[in-house]
Amino acid sequence: MSGILFLKTKDLSSLKDFYINNLNCEIWQDQGDCVIFRHGNFLFGFCERDEIENKAMLTFFYENRDDVDRMYAKLKDVSVSGPTENDKYNIYQCFVKDPDGRMVELQYFNEPVSQYMAGDDLILTRRSIRKFTDEEIPPALLEKILDICRYAPTSRNTQGYYFKVIEDRDTLDWLSETRQASTTPLARAPIAIAICADPTVTARADHDACIAAYHLILTAWFYGLGTCWIGGMDREDIKDRLGIPPTHYLATVVPLGYPAERNMKAPKRKPLKEFLP
Ligand SMILES: Cc1cc2nc3c(=O)[nH]c(=O)nc-3n(C[C@H](O)[C@H](O)[C@H](O)COP(=O)(O)O)c2cc1C
After folding, report:
1. Shortest-distance Cα residue to atom 18 of ligand 1
2. Which of 56, 86, 94, 237 has the greatest number of beta carbons closer than 10 A?
3. Does the C-beta of 185 come closer than 6 Å to ligand 1?
4. For the whole model, what pTM was predicted?
């Protein structure tokens, strides 16, 4: 479910130019005399009519203050006021005007906000995180993430996978040494989660556990947490240490925590045609 805010304009083409080229929006739906723009999951539309509706204000918010400063520098010619703190709302903001004279706010929330990420942004911005802050993961957040992971698809809906939450520092340090450089992210995280599956419950233990693990990785990212797939964990010594029966499949043990780095550039991907041999 989502929604759209519509406003009237007399000059759709100037607004298209402004919102696409200056504010990095994309056209979500072009209906001719009405165009709906998208900025993340913010949907707003303009319809060409014989009057301008510009009493509204459009607010674009960014991941960090630098982005607000960068956008402000780009839009200085149409600025109304430069970036300042707004203590009342605990935001960092500036104002510019669009070609209709409509107020546009560019802001950063100083406090973390509830999640809002659009689906494609979730997939495209997810990165493997190998360094974490010391911030603890609120237990309610961890429970919410694991609860959402119950909706991972499984072979014949057998749901034979399970999670083991590892909080013990000695165990995390031991795990981090099992495959040297490959497993070091485990030493740098507040917790880790092992994703396993019981082959007596599912005939596809490996598939089910891997899919559940990826659900965990994506859900964690949606809620602002970082993870990294660690390969080669389906080993007797690791299962023994974690209390996982030797016959169960261990897909991975992922570190979990608040990323120490943000807005990381994606490692280069091959062009689509190479994935379509
Ligand atoms: C099957 C698999 C095994 C991986 N093993 C490790 C690992 O042992 N250690 C590690 O730091 N990253 C590991 N990764 C993470 C990859 O290096 C990472 O996904 C890749 O470089 C692309 O980066 P991105 O996830 O940020 O897009 C693994 C990823 C996959 C899918």
Report:
1. 128
2. 94
3. yes
4. 0.91
Query: Does residue 115 surpass a pLDDT of 90?
Result: no
The pLDDT tens digits for 204-215 are: 999 999 999 999
DSSP 8-state code for residue 70? H
Helix, strand, coil fractions of the chain, as percent rounded to 5: 35, 30, 40
Strand 26-30 with 34-39, pairing: antiparallel
CATH 3.40.109.10: does it fit domain 119-257?
yes
- CATH 3.10.180.10 fits domain 5-109: yes
Does residue 267's CB lie within 6 angstroms of at least one atom of ligand 1? yes
Express each pLDDT in 141-161 by its tens digit. 999 999 999 999 999 999 999
Which residues of the chain are in CATH 3.10.180.10 domains?
5-109
Pocket of ligand 1 contains residue 231 by CB under 6 Å:
yes
Q: Is the CB of 266 under 6 A from ligand 1?
A: yes
